[in-house]
Design goal:
This protein is α+β, with helices and mostly antiparallel strands. The protein has helices spanning 5-16, 22-29, 33-45, 78-88, 115-124; strands spanning 65-73, 94-99, 106-112, 132-139. The protein has a four-stranded antiparallel beta sheet with strand order 2-3-1-4. Strand 2 (94-99) and strand 3 form a beta hairpin.
């Protein structure tokens, strides 16, 4: 699906503040409310907008320990890869999971309260999964950047063929 300049501007606005209402968005992009409402509904229906969320301060909710865990599996059959992927996302500590190329098969981001909670996650959850060969964990000391908004490029303006 092709996104036009208005679609992109709406998406940019919503990525930075999903609480904006249709009137506020319409005012910001110079359109009326009804076309903005229809565009947003279309963007939702087509799956471009997947959901709306609130971003929380992890320190204020007691999840100040972030770990990135590399997992290498013993085997790489489709069944084993899919099984691991299906099981790992069931753990509430897991915030993100990626199947990778390279030495490790998965990169898992986990959010935890402290090191004892990580130990519990490792020993009583991750280590119970079948076919794990190697686990290597990296703990975040500080965040340099945490962004959730994608950079969207506005398409070039179409030439009307009229000379000035």
């Amino acid at each position: 699906m092709l996104l036009d300049a208005d679609d992109i501007r709406i998406l940019q606005l919503l990525q930075h503040d999903a609480r904006l209402n249709n009137k506020e968005i319409a005012d910001k992009i110079g359109k009326s409310v009804t076309p903005v409402y229809e565009r947003i509904k279309r963007l939702e229906t087509e799956g471009i907008i997947e959901k709306y969320v609130a971003l929380l301060n992890k320190n204020l909710i007691g999840k100040s320990l972030t770990a990135f865990v590399h997992v290498q599996l013993k085997e790489h059959s489709q069944t084993i890869l899919k099984s691991f992927q299906r099981e790992i996302v069931k753990f509430p500590e897991v915030m993100e999971s990626y199947h990778l190329t390279g030495q490790f098969d998965f990169l898992i981001k986990v959010a935890l309260t402290d090191m004892p909670e990580y130990n519990d996650f490792l020993m009583n959850k991750l280590a119970t999964l079948k076919d794990i060969h190697t686990v290597q964990s990296f703990f975040v000391l500080s965040e340099g950047k945490r962004e959730t908004a994608y950079v969207l490029k506005t398409p070039p303006m179409k030439k009307t063929g009229k000379k000035k």
